[in-house]
Amino acid sequence: MIEKFTSNAQAIEAADKYLYGNHVRVPLVMDRGEGCYVYDLDGDKYLDFVGGIAVNGLGHCHPAIVKALEERAETILHCSNYYYNEPAIQTAKLLVENSCFDKVIFANSGAEANEAQIKLARKYAVDHGHPERYVVISMIQSFHGRTLATATATGQEIVHNPKWFSPLPEGFRYAEFNNLESVKEQMGDDVCAILTEPIQGEGGVHPATKEFLQGLRDLCDEKGILLMYDEVQVGSGRTGKLFAYQNYGVEPDCCSLAKALGSGVPIGAVCAKGDAAKTLTPGTHGSTFAGGPLACALAEATLDEMINNGVIDHAAEAGEYFRAQLSKLQEKYPTAIKEVRGMGMINAIELTMADGHPVVDKCFEQKVLINCTAGNVLRFIPPLIAGKEEIDQVIQALDQSFAQLGC
Ligand SMILES: Cc1ncc(COP(=O)(O)O)c(C=O)c1O
User: How many angstroms does the Cα of residue 112 sit away from the middle of ligand 1?
Assistant: First the structure.
């Protein structure tokens, strides 16, 4: 019989003993969640504006997800990709019917979805008579995952530090985000694809400009290479559209999704169109778990709720209200807040101070969970269902935090 932990302190003591120390964690043991709130083992309640790093799009324990999970537990959790399963087909249908894409291939995480995109781009080049093309140009300050290839595609040396992880995979070069000339400088006969996030999430919530994405599209068309988006963080309704690219009207050849797609179960996907949707033929790519009925049933329920029950539209409206409130806060603390930016329900304030963690800590004291990325960018990626009440609560916590820090 396993003796359950009854307090944060007790659980954290055991965690220090048994869990590998590759994460720096906040001293909070998540016990359960409900909507936009979570409860720890001490019974304290927190407003969750981290949302599992943009995973809990529908919040915690959403009835549609609970129902899908219960149904799944009583039918079939896993079958191999030797066979079809209905949730995978329905999920792919929802993604295709609500986008520019023709086909969907599943994965188990964001990194795996991006690995699939990289493989797809290289094989696409070979299939089109260009085996010399294998380089993927990605952006400085991007984030694409932590496998060897996706860490190398990530334009941040801390993620693929060659001192630790050499030899890194070949075939990656970096250009400046939102700088088309910089991309052109990296272009060559060896390039098979350009990979970018439409909004850099980990890099500090930087939206691409429409001109930049259009410039990439034109460049890829001119060269006959693929434009690939990474929408792992900003897809699945986050920006107030199902796909972030739909805010720009600039379509990629393929696009990765993960995070909020499964409302908390691991899932990733690559959506592809045209010839890019025909490249990964039998024997070229696959995975035991990818596209399984459990993860896909939750993705199907998530997409159904988001698309057909107004969650995405709500995210667009709530995001506007949120940014308006953040801008008011900037007027109140002009020396502390350098910029407010975002789209839909991915929003941020860039601070003038070099480190944002004191603000995160002050919010934590007020039982509000927020996150800091890129050193001094406070990032807000709450459940898409968060409304005025929750937004006002986070604004109040920020206000108090800035005041307490003497900003
Ligand atoms: C844009 C982007 N791509 C890829 C990843 C990697 O996803 P995962 O952690 O599911 O492998 C992340 C994770 O934060 C991300 O934000």
Answer: 9
Element spanning 314, H or E: helix 311-332
Q: Where are the beta strands (DSSP E) in 208-280?
A: 226-230, 254-257, 268-272
Q: 57 with 119, same domain?
A: no
Residues 251 and 103 in one domain: yes
What are the pLDDT digits (tens) for 376-401? 999 999 999 999 999 999 999 999 99
Pocket test for ligand 1, best of 144, 289, 377 (most atoms within 8 A of CB): 144
Pick the last residue of a domain from 308, 330, 362. 308
User: Which tokens go with 250?
Assistant: 């600039």
Q: What is the CATH number of the domain that holds 228?
A: 3.40.640.10
Mutate to test the pocket of ligand 1, among 232, 287, 381 (most ligand atoms within 8 A of CB): 232
- Measuring from each residue's beta carbon to the nearest atom of ligand 1, which residues come in under 6 Å? 53, 109-111, 114, 143-145, 197, 201-202, 230, 232-233, 258
Atom 8 (ligand 1): residue with closest C-alpha?
A: 110
Identify whether residues 222 and 110 lie together within a single domain. Answer: yes
Question: What is the tens place of the pLDDT at every residue in 194-212?
Answer: 999 999 999 999 999 999 9
Location of structure tokens 């003591």: 13
- Tens digits of per-residue pLDDT, 367-376? 999 999 999 9
CA distance 382 to 396: 16
Residue 142 lies in a domain: yes
At how many degrees (to 10) do helices 388-404 and 357-365 cross?
120
- The closest-lying atom of ligand 1 relative to the alpha carbon of residue 111 is 11
- Within-domain flag for 3: no
Q: For the whole prediction, is pTM greater than 0.85?
A: yes
Domain final residue, candidates 255, 275, 308:
308
